[in-house]
Design brief:
The protein is mainly alpha-helical. The protein has two domains: about 55 residues; about 210 residues, Muramoyl-pentapeptide Carboxypeptidase, domain 2 (2-Layer Sandwich), CATH 3.30.1380.10. The chain contains nine helices and seven strands; from the N terminus they run H-H-H-H-H-E-E-H-H-H-E-H-E-E-E-E. Strand 1 and strand 2 form a beta hairpin. The N and C termini lie far apart (about 110 Å). The relative contact order is 0.12.
């Protein structure tokens, strides 16, 4: 009897231990399962995984996190800004004086040639500032003129046009039609306008004057990429256009800007054309 009793006690203990071990195994399995569910939730909440999941519809790629390129064609303004940024460096804030100047005179920044230099800013402060920029330019004389200089590419293109057809300078021969000093720009400004006009231009309240004369330190003539010509017929305009020269300042009839691109490329670069009294002006889309 004593042995039977001991056997029963042993069996009871074994069952207790087995229950404990089974309970421990069950808890362990439950914990592993729970951890696995949490891990799956974390993976599902990962944005990159979600992008891949979404992209799986159209095909998941390694660069799923890169910004997508808009499927719609970019606007004229976006095309123009993208094209001038290599030479402009810093885009002025909309509504600022610099932005107004870029809109009115910034067409030249489109020039893709490496040897054509554009100024680091849209306003030169004084003569010294202007000369420092002009000293970096490779200039060339316009053939048959008296001291009329332009940047070499611009002069070459104009000289070529002038071999094809007679295209006189506005003054007939003079230097003031071509590369100008800060002092000449200032003198011309005071001929047509004053400090009050300048304040109005800065405030965005006056724009018409910009087609007559450039504010001090802002003329395209300071860059060696503009010339005033005595053009009177469509053939002369056609030859100039074919050589990269265009009218870009609305109502400034004698003023020509060297853009160095073909006419058919101008709309692709965002330019808009405006025809006034039979003259086609190519304007920035700003
Ligand atoms: Zn001019």
């Amino acid at each position: 009897m004593k042995y039977i009793y001991k056997l029963k006690e042993l069996m009871k203990r074994l069952i207790k231990k087995a229950r404990f071990i089974l309970t421990a195994i069950f808890i362990c399995l439950a914990l592993v399962a729970s951890n696995s569910i949490q891990h799956n939730q974390i993976v599902a909440n990962d944005p990159s995984t979600n992008q891949c999941l979404v992209a799986a519809v159209t095909g998941c790629s390694a660069n799923a996190q890169e910004p997508s390129i808009p499927s719609q064609p970019v606007t004229e303004e976006e095309r123009f800004v993208a094209a001038i940024m290599p030479k402009l460096k810093v885009m002025p804030a909309p509504g600022s004086f610099e932005y107004t100047l870029l809109r009115s005179y910034g067409a030249a920044f489109i020039n893709p040639a490496d040897d054509v230099k554009l100024p680091p800013k849209l306003i030169f402060d004084n003569e010294e500032d202007t000369k420092e920029f002009q000293s970096q330019l490779t200039l060339e004389k316009v053939v048959g003129t008296n001291e009329c200089y332009l940047q070499k590419s611009a002069a070459d293109a104009l000289n070529k046009a002038r071999t094809q057809l007679n295209i006189p300078l506005k003054s007939g021969y003079g230097a003031s039609d071509c590369l100008r000093s800060f002092a000449t720009n200032l003198r011309f400004w005071h001929k047509y306008a004053n400090n009050q006009t300048l304040e109005k231009v800065k405030e965005g309240k006056e724009t018409a004057i910009l087609g007559l004369v450039a504010p001090p330190g802002t003329s395209q003539h300071l860059w060696g990429l503009a010339i005033d010509l005595g053009v009177f017929n469509p053939q002369q305009r056609q030859i100039l256009n074919q050589n990269g020269w265009f009218q870009t300042v609305v109502k400034d009839v004698p003023h020509w800007t060297y853009l160095g691109v073909a006419a058919e490329d101008l709309p692709k670069l965002g330019f808009k054309n405006q025809v006034i009294k039979g003259i086609t002006y190519w304007l920035t889309p700003l």
